[in-house]
Fold this protein.
Amino acid sequence: MSVLSVCEWLQNLPWASGIKHSTWQFPVIESVHSLALGVMLWPAALLDLRLLGVTMRRRPVSQVAEQFLPWVWTGFIVMISTGTMLFAAEAVKCYNSPFFRTKVVLLGVAGLNALIFHKTVFQSLDTWDKATPTPWRARLAGASSLAVWIGVVAMGRALAYA
Ligand code: HEM
């Protein structure tokens, strides 16, 4: 069974084709997808900029993370749920799209970047919580995260207009 045939099967499921062919379902889900982006992107960017030492330099990183991460996670969960529904509705289009493929790869890179950050330099946060500049690994994680999220958003937009 090829990936393409799984995509065909998925988008022909009654609920998935219902989303695609309804006048309001797809636009409403896509709007929620975009609004959730606003919920997660700005807090994520502000945290990345704190890691880079650009914003909120006098506030400990732990405090900034505590304030912003719940927003990032809330938005992210909504993005994944609504994104999965949009994908199901047009799985073959997504499968054939280089934008969607790039977006999935970038989402994986974002996850990996966050995981590496948490498993390495974040473990010793106590020693550099108030430091400016932050350690180079923290700055690297912040810069990579910013770049990758900009890429994910650009690919999402490109897919919607493709
Ligand atoms: C946090 C992660 C994500 C971000 C930042 C993101 C970002 C975006 C953006 C900016 C758009 C364009 C919306 C518009 O122009 O109205 C979009 C569309 C889309 N997203 Fe996501 N997305 C994410 C996760 C996902 C996931 C996990 C999937 C699928 C499993 C997905 C599937 C889609 C699809 C299919 C569209 C295009 C809808 C169309 O053809 O108009 N997204 N995304």
Notes: Helices lie at 3-11, 14-21, 25-51, 61-89, 91-96, 98-119, 125-128, 136-161. Residues 30, 33-34, 37, 76, 79-80, 83-84, 86-87, 90, 94, 107, 152-153, 156-157, 159-160 surround protoporphyrin IX containing FE (CB under 6 Å). The chain has eight helices and no strands. The chain has a mean pLDDT of 96.
